[in-house]
Every structure is written in structure tokens, then in C-alpha cells.
Amino acid sequence: MRLRGADVLARTLAAAGTRHVFALSGNHVMPVFDAALEAKLSLVHVRHEAAAVHMADAWGRLTGEPGIALVTGGPGHANAVSALYTALCSDSPLVLISGHAPLAELGKGAFQEMRQAEIAAPLAKASWTAQSAETLGADVARALRVARSGRPGPVHLSVPNDLLDAEAAAGIPKPDAFLPEDGAIGEPQAAALLGELAAAKRPLILTGRCGVPGLEEATGIPVIAMESPRGVNDPSLGRLARILGGADAVLLVGKRSDFSLKFGRAFAPECVVLHAEHTAGWLEAARGVKPSKSGWAEEVAAALRYRPPEWATLRSSTGGPLHPIDVCRAVQPLLDAPGAILVCDGGEFGQWAQACLRAPRRIINGPAGSIGSALPFAAAAKLACPGAPVVALLGDGTFGFHMSEIDTAVRRGLAYVAVIGNDACWNAEYQIQLRSYGKERAHGLDLLPTRYGAVVAAMGAHGEDVERPGQLAAALERARGADQVACVNVLIERAAAPTY
Fold this sequence. Notes:
Blueprint: E1 3-4, H1 5-15, E2 20-23, H2 30-39, E3 42-45, H3 49-63, E4 67-71, H4 75-81, H5 84-89, E5 94-100, H6 116-120, E6 126-129, H7 136-148, E7 154-160, H8 161-165, E8 167-168, H9 187-198, E9 203-207, H10 215-219, E10 223-225, H11 240-246, E11 249-253, E12 272-276, H12 282-286, H13 296-305, H14 324-335, E13 341-344, H15 347-356, E14 361-364, H16 374-384, E15 390-395, H17 396-399, H18 405-412, E16 417-422, H19 427-437, H20 452-458, E17 462-466, H21 469-480, E18 486-491
Helix pairs in contact: 1-2, 1-7, 3-4, 3-16, 14-15, 14-21
């Protein structure tokens, strides 16, 4: 049977188990929209191409399966690629499929012609342009396979428009074409590294976001996943800097000794630092390691749990605005439910949320240090885990990046709760000005104290604006019970990010 290239693409995605495609329409990809009908693919139509990639990113982090973003070529592709960096730094598996000017017209001034694969290449594990409708299914299968193989990450595939309309005799790839390649560390190498750690008095294992589940329990060696752009000052990891400075042996698994570790200066000069790229295959080797019982693991756990005792008694003035700690204190009950998902963006308010809130699962902006992803992340989280409470905390500056994705959530019936910390300021940069130049030179960073609750209500969502501490708990309870996307906009103090 001969199929259009668009049908091959759509049916290949379906055969791989794709449930949702995060998409924004455009000339170059309309054949795929058509083909999605027979392939029974759900199209989540967003309002900005970067949001589609952020949603695919969150989907990949939560499910382990590559999220799929579909955008048009030219400026659509250019809008999308900026979000690839966040996914790349967070080891998030996704595939960005971009429409593309027709092969037959390249070099002649084709509509929206652009060197798309070259643009995306620095931001992805692999990036290429399909060359034939006959091999399009294999291209898609390869993209899915590479995204999951070894250290996960984003992959980009550009698909010229004439390939989507062309007929192809090729079939849909077999199931094994989608399987990731083996990226496990060899057991002898893993055993040797773990043995060297076990001989140390104060060993640590540091990983990226994905971690190595079960390794700490198997070895007794503390395993710390580092995913914050603040590195050793990650507000969710308490006195991490002190622990790193006291370690005598550290194994970095799928993590570089980069800026987040002060390029190695986070460790004592005599500390032995070991490196391993592969994040799989460790548990088999851990069987031969005798768990440590020195008390070091308990010392590490206590340091990571540490929060300044004065936080427990900090309260906002009754007239408002609220301190971020008070906001987090009121939000925590929404996250105490089984399976709840916390979404935190960057900025000072996001750092307070990461420091103060606990949840079974969490998605943050990651080592890229970007902002703007919270609302797309929350939407994808609700799609991936429809029965779980999803709560996103973000600043007012961040909210402006993808405010229109509230419309996406309303159309799709995605009932997450967004809490906006509104200090009418780009506060992270304002704090830099205060520290570096003084209050008299702090300028250019003010925003309006906009009533974003009223804005989202006008978009068909549940929205509330909170100005005083006494209003917050009831507003959050109404948001939780709204049975639709809900935003609670809270006026907060311009507080610097937490330090320990």
C-alpha cells in the first residue's frame, strides 16, 4: 500500500505509542494535521512554538517516553528551538519535528527557507533533514531511538513539505526500530568505581536530573541529583555546599564538573573525583558493595533537609504584600496528595518554592536557568498524569512568557493550579542590582502590579487576585475545587532568593 509521507510520519508516531503531539499549525505541516485523523493522534494545539517544545519536555521527564513537538518551518522552527536548550540541559527525551521548505525549491528562494537542522544542531543530541518519503518512517524511528538512548535528550527532524505530500511505498517501522540502544555501563567498571567509593569515609554520588534510582539504598552511599542552575546553592538541597566540601571521594554519574560545581572547586583539594557518563547498569554492580554504616549518610541527609529555623516563625504583615514563605506554607496542602506534581520556574519566587515545598514529583527549569516554562510544563503534566494534582509556582515576569497557554489549558480541560508570585518586578535581576550597584542605581526592572487573576478569568479560566495573607487560603481552596485551570495571583514582597 502506498501512503503519503505525512501518513507514514503520523502512523510511525502512533506505532511508537505516541499519545499526544504538541503542535502549532502552519503551512508546512498541514498534511500531518490531516494524517493525524487516520493515525488517531491527539493534537494539543498550543499558542507558541516554544510552548510545544516545553510541553514535550515535561512529557519526556514524567513518562520517560519522548514527547513530540510539531511546528511549521522557518519562523515557527526558530521560535521552537529556543526551548530545546532547557530540555538538553535537563536530559529530557523529546523529538521536535519541524516542517521545512520543499527539497525541490531549496536554493531558489523558497518560502520560509532556512538552514533548520544546522540551527537546531547545537541544542540537540542529533539534528537532520529528511531526504525521502520512502525513508521518513525510518527517520522518525531513529529520532525516537536516539532521544532515549544513553543519556536522554532532545532530537530534531526537519521534514520538507514535498516529502509529506509525496507517495511512498515504505511500510511502518517494526516495534524494535524504536527501542533505545544499550547505554549501560559495564559491570566491571561500575564495580571498580563503587568499590573505590566504598573504601572512602565520606563518599558521595552526584548525578543529573535523572539520577540512578535504587543506588543509594543498594550501597549506603548518598546519591544527590543536582538539577538547579544555582548548583551548590540549590535552595532545595539545604547545606549542600558544606557536604560537598567535606566529601573525600565523589563519583559524578552523567554529570560534568561544570559551573554548578564551581568547576571542581566545590570539593576539597584532596577529594578524589571520579567520572562516569552512563547512568544505567549500576544496580548490578552494587550487589558486591557492602553498605556503609558510618553515619555519613545520616549527616548528608540532615544537611540536605536543613532550613533556617527562623523560617518557621516568619509571617507577612497583615496588610500585605505576602512573603514567599507564607505563600508556600499555604500551598503545601495542595501538594500533600499522593502523586502530586510540583512545577517551579526560575526567578527568586521559584527559588523560594523549591526550598519550601515538597511533592512526590517535581519539574523545574533545570540547569539551563531559563524562565517561562512553568505553564506549558503544568499543562503537559496534567495530560501525562490526569489524576494527579498539579501545582505550578511562577513569578509575574515568567507568567508573561506563555500567558496565552492558559487558553490551551481551557480548551483541553487541564485542571492544574498556577500560583503567581507578583512583586511587580524582574526581581532576580533587581537583587543583582542591589548587591552589585546599590539601591540608588537599581532601575529599569519594574513591572505593573497587574491583576493576572482577572486576566485569566477573562480567558475562561478560574482566576483570583490576593493582596493580603488572610485571603490566600480560601482562594487556594477555591482554585483546587474549580475543576478547570485556575490561577491565584498573589502580591508578594521583593524578597531575595533564600540562602543558608
